[in-house]
Structures are given as structure tokens and as C-alpha cells.
Amino acid sequence: MKNKQFWADWLFPIISLVTFASLLATMLMTMDSIRVGSLLSYSAGLLAYTSMLTVTFIGSRPRFIEKHFGMPHMFEVHGVMSVMLTILVLIHVIIQWNGIQWVTDMSIVSQTGWVAAIALLVVMFTGIFSLSGMFVNTNPALRKFKEKQPRELNLWLHRLAIVSDIFVFFHLFNLPFLRDNMFFMVLLSVYTIYVLGYYAWWKIKVQMLPKYKLGKIYKGTPSLYVLEFEPTEGRTIPQYNPGEYYWIHFKDADGITKEGHPFSTSSSITDRFNNSIEFMIKEAGDWTKALENVKPGDTATLEGPYGDMFPPHIQELDESVPFTLLAGGIGLTPMLSIARHEHQIGSQREIHLVWGLSFKEDMFMLEELEEIKKANPNFHVHIIFSNEEVEGYDFGFITNEYLEQNGAGDYANGEFFVCGPEPMINAAKRILDNGNVTHAQRHIDDFGF
Ligand SMILES: Cc1cc2nc3c(=O)[nH]c(=O)nc-3n(C[C@H](O)[C@H](O)[C@H](O)COP(=O)(O)OP(=O)(O)OC[C@H]3O[C@@H](n4cnc5c(N)ncnc54)[C@H](O)[C@@H]3O)c2cc1C
Questions:
Q1: Helix, strand, or coil here: 355?
Q2: From CA 131, how far away is CA 119, in angstroms rounded?
Q3: What is the pLDDT of residue 1?
Q4: CA–CA distances in Å: residue 30 to residues 26, 168, 177
Q5: What is the separation of C-alpha 14 from the centre of its chain, rounded to a whole number of angstroms?
Q6: Strand partners, 323
Q7: C-alpha neighbours within 13 Å on the C-beta side of residue 242
Q8: Does the beta carbon of 286 lie inside 6 Å of ligand 1?
Q9: Ligand 1 contact via 447 beta carbon (within 6 Å)
């Protein structure tokens, strides 16, 4: 498992380094000598470019890698690598600096380089201050600033990364000593075409996904929508594992943008959901609030499934292995999907659903949870409120003591599933650390990347 963590952290930086090393080697192959300053500048520039290609590749959500490491972690690496590559670009620009010039006085190499650098600045700004919480969420003022940003506009601007990639390619192509180096140009073209081709293929694939019709939409609580989609044109529902998630892209609904947003399935493939797929969506911002405009009959595509919360090898575990499902607020959705799956297969497994909520009005689904309890007396629900005392329920936060008092703390033998907002995930990780729960026993879904 340590190995998995290593690869989750280092796979993409290693890809950048290997592609960089191959480009540098082919570049140096044809040179008799090079000044140290030039070597440093070219190395910084080339490593920045291979990192740009790698982060573009991550941005196209490659499922075959995501299922091993998880999207939130991949986007963390995406964020860190983007900062590193910006520093490399800065080093390259400082060393190559020719003073201030009019655009018309610049060489084509400088012009293409500047367009790429300016596009990259926009990409970095939108990434740091609008799309990712990673760098700004710990500072309340920056967080507020981020929340005020028009996310969807910034998402479009963030796509200037592709423009930046293309201009760097031409920046390099216009350097005669590189253009005449066949090995270098072949490698550079293969890397660039692979990444941009993969990105284009992914975009086309998303456009061509089959449409699903919204069968039902209703409010589960004052701020929560339940959406149930059905396949169209005689198709069947997609195959997915409990707790996996999809990007929902509305296609022809009035009053909501077509931009995709990620949501975990709350359904599972069961008798009840044998021809439909359900999502539970909490109002969080512009897009989720606009769900009030969406009507039954509107269509959407579902991009996915992504995630690895409840993979087949965990589904096949012996019933003697207890499950603890730790949910914070709307983090209930993948847990419900798991609980519905276990209910469908008639499992008598010891399952503890520990659900932290803020207010009484956030509580829902109690009838169905009761039904599951009736079928499996080893299924237990522990609801704890943090902002309001609610009669008949616990008050406070989920802690090690709380789990242990409720029989949900079998750290040595159990499997632990965690989902919720970032602070809840961090608290849950501390609880699991205190219980010495191994990484293999943890299945964490982060709603906040
Ligand atoms: C893997 C995953 C599964 C999720 N499952 C659920 C679920 O089952 N139910 C639920 O209510 N919410 C879920 N969310 C959260 C949901 O995606 C956001 O609340 C929603 O996209 C907010 O959009 P907005 O425009 O209404 O709010 P905004 O104000 O634009 O965003 C609020 C926050 O949501 C996140 N967010 C917004 N748009 C995106 C996006 N396109 N991609 C990734 N993150 C985004 C950002 O952290 C942002 O700060 C999930 C998130 C992830 C990453």
C-alpha cells in the first residue's frame, strides 16, 4: 500500500521527468558545447513544457489511472506540478530576458513564448484562485475571494492551458537548432500529439455520451434535490459500483448551464434502481441552486463512472468483516449506495452508518434506513448533530470515543468508508490514525477537490 501512495504522489512527476530527460538528451546529442546559463534555461523551459503536457493529461481525467489513485489526489498533484512548472517558466524567462521590446520587434520565438507565458498566467490564476481549494481554502479572506469568482467563466479561461501548450510547441519549433534536430522534433511531436490528441478525444467522447432523461426531481430537504435519471432510446443504465460518481452535464434544460459537475450515485444497481440512477444534490452555489429550473423530461449525459470507494475486492469480502460508514452531511450519498447494495444482496454484515449533520432539517432517508435495519439487525445508524440539539439524537462531533461507545470502532478488523466536506474528512483521517487503521482499510471520497 505504501507503494500505491508512492505512485499516487510520484507517477506524474516521474512521467514529466522521463519525457524531459529524453528531450534534453536528444537536444544535447547534436550540440558540441553549451553555456551553463543556456543549459539551465533550456532545462527549465523543457521541464516546464513536459510538466505542462502532464498536467494537461491529468486534466483530461484519464479513468485508467484515476481508478488507482482517485481524482482528488490526481488534482492535488496537478495543482502542485502547475506551481512548480510556473517557477520553471519564470527561471527560463529571467535567463532569456532581452529587455522590454515591442511585439513587432520580437522574434517569432519570443512572440510565441510570450503568448504561452501570458496564457499560462491566466491558467494559474484561475486554477489557484477559483478552481482549486488547495492553496486558498486555509485563508478565510482568500476563500471568500474564491467563492466570489465566476467558476464557470474561470473554467473556460483555465482551458487556455491548451493554447499555452500549442504556443510552447511552436516556440520550440521556431528555434532553428531544435527544428533541425530530427530526434528532438519527433519526440516533441509524439509527446505533444499524444497529450493534445488524448484531450481532444476525451472532449469528443464526452460530447457523444448517450443522453439520460430526468425521470424525477424533488426536494428531500429544504436544500437537497433528489434526481433520478432513466436511459433513453432503449438503452440500459450504465454499470457502476456503489458509491462511484459521474459528472452530470445537462443538455437541453433551461436555466442551468451545460458545464459538468461531479456527483456520487446514491443508488446502487438493485431491484428498485434496475433501470434508473439516482443522485442527491445539496445546494452549494450557482449550478446546484439552478436545479430549481430543471424539470422531469430534461436530458443530461453522465460522464463516468469515476471513483474507487467500493471496488469489487471489497464487495467480495466475507460477511464477518464489519463496515463503518462515516458520512458528513451530503457525504451520505455514497454510503447510501453501499448500504443499498448490501441490502440488495441480503447481507447480514455488521454495518455502522455514522452520520454527522448540522441541523435537524438536514436529516432525511430515515424510513429507508429503518427498512434496511429490519432486514439486517446488524445494520446500525448513529446520527449526531453538531449545531443543534435534536431530541432522541446525539449532539457533538464524531470522535474515537463516539465510535467505540457505539460499537463502530473495530479498527483492527473493519473496513472504513469516509465521505463529506473537507474538515470532516480531515477529522475522520485523524480518528483513523488514532485507531491505527491501515491505508488499505480506508476508503475515502473527497467532495472538495
Ligand atoms: C467526487 C465528488 C462527488 C460529489 N458528490 C456529491 C453528491 O453526491 N452530492 C452533492 O450534493 N455534492 C457532491 N459533490 C459536490 C458538488 O460537485 C459541488 O457541490 C457542486 O459541483 C457545486 O457546484 P455549484 O456551482 O453549485 O457551487 P460552486 O459555488 O461553484 O462550488 C462550490 C464548491 O464545489 C466544488 N465544485 C464546484 N464545481 C465543481 C466541479 N465542476 N468539479 C469539481 N468540484 C466542483 C468546489 O470545491 C467549489 O468550491 C461532489 C464533489 C465531488 C468532487
A1: strand
A2: 16
A3: 55
A4: 7, 21, 9
A5: 21
A6: 351, 415
A7: 26
A8: yes
A9: yes
- pLDDT tens digits along 221-232: 999 999 999 999
Per residue in 85-135, pLDDT (tens digit) is 999 999 999 999 888 888 898 999 999 999 999 999 999 999 998 888 777
The answer to whether 126 touches 159, Cβ cutoff 8 Å, is no
B/e letters for 59-83, b = 16+ CB within 10 Å, e = fewer, are bbbeeebbbebbbbbbbbbbbbbbe
Atom 46 of ligand 1 has which residue's CA nearest to it? Answer: 448
What's residue 29's pLDDT?
A: 93
- What 8-state DSSP symbol labels residue 125? H
Rounded to the nearest 10 degrees, the angle between the axes of helix 332-344 and helix 366-375 is 30
220 lines ligand 1 (CB under 6 A): no
Residue 166's pLDDT is 98
Residue 43 beta carbon below 6 angstroms from any ligand 1 atom? no
Question: Which of 130, 135, 151 is the pocket-test mutation for ligand 1 (most atoms within 8 Å of CB)?
Answer: 151
Give me the torsion for CA of 410, 315, 417, 383, rounded to 10°. -80
Q: Which three cell numbers stand for residue 22?
A: 529524453
Q: Is 150 in the pocket of ligand 1 (CB under 6 A)?
A: no
For ligand 1, whether the C-beta of 284 sits within 6 Å is yes
Q: What are phi and psi of 48, to 5 degrees?
A: -60, -40
| Cα 78 to middle of ligand 1, angstroms | 18
Could you give the CA distance from residue 226 to residue 237 in angstroms, rounded to a whole number? 17
CA distance 187 to 168: 15
Per-residue pLDDT tens digits for 313-328: 999 999 999 999 999 9
User: pLDDT tens, 426-439?
Assistant: 999 999 999 999 98
Convert the pLDDT of each residue in 48-76 to its tens digit. Answer: 999 999 999 999 999 999 988 889 889 99
196 closest CA partner among 239, 228, 164: 164
pLDDT at 446 over 60: yes
Q: CA distances (Å), 58 to each of 40, 187, 233, in order?
A: 27, 20, 33
Which residues, other chains included, contact 431 with Cβ-Cβ below 8 Å and sequence gap of 6+?
326, 398, 399, 400, 403
> Does the pTM of the predicted model rise above 0.85?
yes
What's the rounded Cα separation, in Å, for the pair 61 and 366? Answer: 35
Question: For 10, how many CA atoms within 13 A lie in the half-sphere containing its CB?
Answer: 9
